[in-house]
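Exercise: predict the fold of this chain.
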Amino acid sequence: MLETIGLGGGCHWCTEAVFESLKGVTQVNQGYIASIDPYTSFSEAIIIEFDPQIIALATLIEIHLHTHQSTKNHSRRDTYRSAVYFYTNQQKHQINTIMSNLQVKFEGKIITKIIQFNKFKASRAEIQHYYKKNPEKPFCKKYIIPKLLLLQDKFPTHV
């Protein structure tokens, strides 16, 4: 049975490209997610469907934390929120445990929020699957390709 999770990790083009390349991820929807108070503003994010028999939620979250600035604040966090969006209370508890266990793998404190999914707005069709359509663009070379190389280096069995 497939599961769904939302991830916010800065630019949704980058996050989309990382998770589209993983075994066990069956669908990636790029767009904007809003939660409930105090995170009602939409921020760039993705929703992924995955097969937990192929890739565990813990692995997805670890990949997420390693492929964006999960330990650094910056002035645009409202638009580029570092988050894991849960759909059920069971997921919330599971994510809290996973994040707590992963903290030891990072030098800084993980600032990624664990927040309830509320609303999703898809990106315009022309920017969906941005990296697949535009791998030679300067943005892709500067921001996405280094993330994909890190993914291949740190998580080779999942690519």
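Check your answer against the key: DSSP finds five helices and six strands in the chain.
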